[in-house]
Every structure is written in structure tokens, then in C-alpha cells.
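pasting Response regulator for the record, 126 residues
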Amino acid sequence: MTKRILIIDDEPDIREATQLCLEIVKGWDILTAGSSKEGIEKAILEQPDAVLLDVMMPEVDGLATFDQLQANPSTRHIPVILLTAKAQAADQRQFTQLAIAAVITKPYDPLTLADQIDAILTAYAA
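structre below
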């Protein structure tokens, strides 16, 4: 079954590169959003199989976006994978306290990203 993945990231180049990666390697249906507001609206409307969420975004950051997704009954079941350049130990500890599916650190390897996400979603569903 083809997965539908929503990428929420304020950087157009990151969105495009990640989208191409996942479409080419896995043939997944990829949706993108450039802001928290747009991402939440798409998550509610499209009900993706997972959300790849950038942590550092202007206006509303990824953690606040995650909180909003968790607070909404129609999106709280969607696994969220954080994409972040914040790899410090304190940041990682904060992330593990959240009900997220996983954290993928930027820069990620485009050749292994799709398999990494697939493994995360398989483990999350188990």
C-alpha cells in the first residue's frame, strides 16, 4: 500500500529534496506544507500516514505544531517524525519525552531516508 506522507518544513529546498527522495525511492504520495498553519490544515483534511515535521520554523515552531496535532482528535493518531538539526543531548532528551514516533537528524542521508521512515512506521504500528 502506498503511504501518504506530509512534510511540514519552512525551507522550500528541504521540502522538495525530501519529497523527491520519498517519491523516487518508495513511490509514496507526498504532501507538503511551508508553515505550521498550512501543515495542520493539510493533516486534518488529508489524514496522512505520517508527518515529517521540522522543529525550527518561524512563527509557530515544530514542537508547538506537534502539540496542536496532538490536541486535535482528528490528527492525534498520526505518527509524527521530527526532522531537526538540533542534535544536542538536552534537545534529544526533550524530544524523547514527547509522544513522537522518532527523531531524524538533519542533514539526513537521502538514500536511506525512505527506508528509515518505513522502519519507524513499521515499529510504530507494532
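The longest helix spans residues 12-26.
The chain is about 45% helix and 20% strand.
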